[in-house]
Amino acid sequence: MESATIDMLQTEKANPGMAPSEILKSERLEHLKYDIRGPVYEKALELESQGYKIISLNIGNPAAFGFDAPDEIVHDIILNIRNAQGYADSRGLFAARKAVMHHTQNIGLPGITINDVYIGNGVSELIMLSMQALLNEGDEVLIPTPDYPLWTASVAFCGGKPIHYVCDEAKDWNPDLADIEQKITPRTRAIVVINPNNPTGAVYDKAVLEKIARLAERHKLIVFADEIYDRILYDGAEHHHIAKLVNDTLCITMGGLSKNYRSAGFRGGWLILSGARHRAKSYIEGLTLLASMRLCANVPTQFAIQTALGGYQSIHDLVLPNGRLYKQIMLAWQRMTAIPGITCVKPNGALYIFPKIDLSQFHLDSDDDFTLNLLIEQKVLVVAGSGFNFTTNDHFRIVCLPTVDELNVALDRIEAFLESRRR
User: Fold this and answer.
1) In terms of C-beta distances under 8 Å and separation of at least 24 residues, what long-range contacts does 130-134 make, across chains too?
2) Are 140 and 163 in contact (CB under 8 A)?
3) What distance in Å separates the CA atoms of residue 217 and residue 275, rounded to the nearest whole number?
4) What is the pLDDT of residue 63?
5) Per-residue DSSP letters for 254-272?
6) How confident is the model at residue 6 (pLDDT cuts 50, 70, 90)?
7) Separation of alpha carbons 353 and 357, rounded Å
8) What DSSP string describes 72-106?
9) 152-209: per-residue pLDDT in tens?
10) Residue 371 forms beta bridges with which residues?
């Protein structure tokens, strides 16, 4: 090392208040991760830059696999584009919020007003806003494991402490109520429920949701209901909105256009306040302030929300037994479970399967080892279960959006890779 560099480092060590020579990222980002677009994804980009074709099964992006947004949604955005040049109300366009309000009436959630609805740039933005408005340093939020990692990252980024409660694979990935209760402390502020679930494909039993609602009410916890996949259901599975079960505490339900309406890039989401809103006036004021500080959500997409919620629900055709989504996800589940050493709970909703690898049957150290070497050797990109803050290192998630033919190619490669590593 050159003497000048040594002198510089010694000077910085002797003067800790001195600005470092390198521009560093915020310390609050130090332990955050989002492995859906993490190091293995970066390796995939590197391989693509070298000319390799990667089969990407890592991101639930419908448009990338030929799922177009309904024509009516696109038409409404185009027709209203001139009306979308200015700012909207910070909570959202009246027509869009009214459409969400009518949606709550259709699902049997009474008493929701226009002012209980906030429009955001997708659910992702609304998750961050809702955490920023709530958390003080060290406050705890109960989050499922496995989770959608944005929840964990948002809580940590806002100074909170993510506490992961177990979802039980042996019980179709339903939340473990005893585990939830034992993890509630005086610092616990909220519980997150992701239903239908990403990454497991679980659709929770109503009895389990009722017990979570009672636990939340008893401990005065906010219930955050992530229901972005609420219309993507298979084989007669019934989705129960937990907001209908919560009365004596605040419930915040989030939904949007990205999955049910195959419009991920339009970034249209909504947040619905229900339950004991009178006990959360200060929090709601904070939420409104933060919504105002970002001025408004993107306006063109808001013109499509009324059409989306009130129009023909084409998603129902895709999830029927002869529908494209159904055929693809069941193909993936059947083929994975046919491989000795691989097990997988049958998905009842969403766009994913979450298989388990019996590591004792393969020359593999972990899910990270599996995903990296699968990418390098077979050019298939999936996400390790640990990327969803799961407690064991033996699962991975497959996105089931490619066509049956494309999916078969990917599954052939996964099977070949596993056979090459069999003990």
Assistant:
1) 130/224, 130/252, 130/271, 130/287, 131/155, 131/157, 131/158, 131/160, 132/158, 132/290, 133/283, 133/286, 133/287, 133/289, 133/290, 134/158, 134/160, 134/189, 134/190, 134/222, 134/283, 134/286
2) yes
3) 10
4) 92
5) EEESTTTTS-GGG--EEEE
6) very low
7) 13
8) HHHHHHHHTGGGGSSPPPTT--HHHHHHHHHHHHH
9) 999 999 999 999 999 999 999 999 999 999 999 999 999 999 999 999 999 999 999 9
10) none
**Residues 401 and 60: beta-carbon distance below 8 Å:** yes
Q: CB burial class (10 A; 0-12, 13-18, 19+) of residue 32?
A: middle
Mean pLDDT for 14-29 is 71
Q: What would the two tokens of residue 227 be?
A: 């229901």
360-407 pLDDT, tens digit each: 999 999 999 999 999 999 999 999 999 999 989 999 999 999 999 999
Which residues are registered as beta bridge partners of 255?
270
223 beta partners:
191, 251
Beta bridge partners of 327: none
Residue 9 reports pLDDT greater than 50: no
Contact between residue 146 and residue 390 where contact means Cβ atoms under 8 Å apart: yes
CA distances from 238 to 205, 214, 231, 260, 320 (A): 9, 21, 9, 15, 14
As given in the structure block, the two tokens for residue 275 are 């339950």
**Phi, psi angles (nearest 5°) of residue 422:** -70, 140
Phi, psi of 272 (to 5 degrees): -120, 125
**Amino acid letter, residue 403:** T
220 backbone φψ class: left, alpha, beta (φ>0; ψ -120 to 50): left
Alpha helix positions (H), 158-205: 177-182
Dihedral over alpha carbons 98, 266, 120, 271 (to 10 degrees): 60
Angle, CA 136 vertex, CA 135 and CA 140 arms, to 5°: 65
Tally of CB atoms within 10 A around 121: 18
81-85-87 Cα angle (round to 5): 125
Which pTM was predicted? 0.90
Asked whether residue 11 carries a pLDDT value surpassing 80, the answer given is no
52-110 pLDDT per residue, tens: 999 999 999 999 999 999 999 999 999 999 999 999 999 999 999 999 999 999 999 98
Q: What angle do CA 114, 116, 122 make, to 5 degrees?
A: 100
